Amino acid sequence: MDTRQVIDRYYELANAGEWDDWCDLFSADTRMDEQLAGHVEGRETLRAMMKGFPETYASFVNRPRHVVVSDATAAVVSHISGRTRHGSSVEADVCNYFEVTDGQITYMANFHDTVPFGPALSGK
Q: Does the pTM exceed 0.85?
């Protein structure tokens, strides 16, 4: 897959809640700087983190609004709409930055306001 195909698949799998397949988009030695989780290293660390995601969110959609791809890098502005298992709403605008090598994400960073994720973090 080229960079654009990887990015499109990233959002397709996230929106389908297919977290194992989503994790497979990342290289084994991936690095991620995640606004809520901090610095993450390794696909299996990411996979372990994502196992709890369905327990946190009853619904989760991350809709890309603007995608820019340049060779092996991409930036995506998107909007997250979610609902926690306890019924709280989560709405947030997000920007993700990606580096892709040989069809896998080797680095990703996301940027967003953390306040909208309060209900998910507190289990409400």
A: yes
